[in-house]
Amino acid sequence: MHSDIQKTCDADERFAARFPDRQFWLRPASRGEVREIFGRKVRGWHPCLAVWREGDIYRKVPFFATTRDVADASDGVSAETAVNAIESLREGVVLRILITRSGRAL
Question: How many angstroms separate the CA atoms of 41 and 24, rounded?
């Protein structure tokens, strides 16, 4: 499991190096992150993370989405998702979002 978590950390660092102006991004959770952060899968929902970068610190905020295809979200959408996910966690639940493309649910 450690190597899986390390791979995702390395991937986040590569993303940050490739897009140095991005502070937020979304991505599907790895198997190790699902076990460590979510604990279990939820039928019909995909475990994902909003990554919030502040310098060399990466905060990963869990949420569920209707699809794993979340990586193309803009910095603004990713930031809004991170904030909403944090607020949901404060209320004791994991945020669930419906992903849409051109007004159609995915």
Answer: 24
Q: For residue 12, which amino acid is it? A: D
Closest to 84 measured CA to CA, from 26, 44, 39, 32 = 26
- The string of pLDDT tens digits covering residues 52-97 is 999 889 999 999 999 988 988 999 999 999 999 999 999 999 999 8
Of the candidates 61, 65, 69, which has an alpha carbon nearest to the alpha carbon of residue 23?
61
Q: How far is CA 43 from the centre of its chain?
A: 18
What pTM was computed for the model?
0.85
68 neighbors 28 (Cβ within 8 angstroms)? yes
